[in-house]
Amino acid sequence: MSKGYFRFDSNVNSVGGCVASRLPDLKNSVTSHDLCSCLKGTSKIGQEAVPNLTEFASSLKADANNVQQFLYTRRKSSLNLISRKKSTNNNRKPTMPLKLYSVSDSPPTLAVRMALKYLDIDHELVDIDFANGEHLKEDYIEKNPQGEVPLLDDDGFVLSESVAIIQYLAEKYKKDDTFYPEDAQERAVVNHRLAFNLSTLYKTVVEYMLLPTFYAYPRTELNLKKLNHSLKTLEEILNRQDKAYVAGDSVTIADLPIVMSLVCLEAMSFDLSEYPRIASWYLNFKDSCGELWEIANKGLEELTGFAQSPPDLSHLEHPIHPTDRSVLEDE
Ligand SMILES: N[C@@H](CCC(=O)N[C@@H](CS)C(=O)NCC(=O)O)C(=O)O
C-alpha cells in the first residue's frame, strides 16, 4: 500500500483504515489523493469536518458501495489518461521529413538509419562528400561544430552524436514499449550498453580498424589488445545476461550501434571464434532484424572494400588526423 495513504491526521487515518477494510482489493492501488477526494466527494465530509469518528465510520460503511464505485471510476479514468497519452505518442510522426546528414559507410550514421527504419520515420538523406572533406568545410561546421556525421535536422532542431540522435528519435517518435523501454531499470540497461559501446567497444574498433583504414595510423598490437579486451567484456555481459539481444529479450536501440561495431570487424574479417556469444547475437540480429540488417549490410559491403583497399585521403587537410601514409611506410 502506498505510504501516503496513511499520511492524514489520526481521524482520517482511522477512516482510511475503515475504507481499507471495506475495500481490501483496492489496498494496493489507492493513493492518499484518491482517499482525500473520496472523503470530500463521495461522503461529502472534509477532513476537518469529521465531528465524530464513529458516526463518520458508520456513514462510510453505508456508503461503501459508492466509495468503491468512486475509487474504481477514479482509477479507471486516470489509467485511461495514461493510455491516451501513450497512444497519442504512438501516433506522432514528424510533420516535415527529417534530414539526416550522412555518409553511406559511416557506422554511427548507419545505426541512426536503422533506428529511423525501425521507427518508420520519413526522412531525407543528405549525402556528405567525405572523401572531399565536405564535413570539414565552413558551411557544414556551421551546422555541426564537431565536423562529423551523422547530423539530424528535425524541422530546425539540429542534433549531432548518433547515440543522442537515436535516443531522441526513439523517445519522440516512440513506436512501442520495447525499443527504448520507459521502465527506469530497463532503460538504464539500454543506456549502459550504449555508453559501453561509445566509451569502450566502438572506441577500440575505431582505433584498430577505422583509423588505420582511412587515415595514416598504424594498426598496432596494443590497439588489438584493447579491442580484444572490450570484446571479452561484451562477451561476459552477454553471457551473464543470457538474453537474445544486447539489452534484453527484444531488439532495443542499444543493439544498433553495437551491431555497427561488429560490422567494422566483419569488414576486416576479424575472427570472432573466441567470442561465441557475440557471434551468435550478431548472427541472430542479422536473421531476426532483416530490414535493419539490410541497411547495415550496405555499410558492410563498402567498409569491406575500404578495408581491402584503403582510400587515399592525403589531399585532405585534416584538423586532427594524419592523412599521408608515406610517413608510415618510412617508419
Ligand atoms: N561520436 C560520433 C562519432 C561520429 C563519427 O566518428 N563520424 C565519422 C564518420 S564515421 C566522422 O564524421 N568523422 C569525421 C572525420 O573523420 O573527419 C557519433 O557517434 O556521432
Automatic annotation (TrEMBL):
Record-annotated GST N-terminal domain positions: 96-177
Basic and acidic residues biased stretches: 314-331
Region (Disordered): 310-331
InterPro entries: Glutathione-S-Trfase_C-like (IPR010987), Glutathione_S-Trfase (IPR040079), Glutathione_S-Trfase_N (IPR004045), GST_C (IPR004046)
GO BP annotations listed: glutathione metabolic process
GST C-terminal domain ranges (all copies): 183-306
GO molecular function: glutathione transferase activity
Top-rank taxon, per record: Eukaryota
Similarity-based family: Belongs to the GST superfamily.
Name the record gives this protein: Glutathione S-transferase
Organism: Allacma fusca
Origin organism lineage: Eukaryota, Metazoa, Ecdysozoa, Arthropoda, Hexapoda
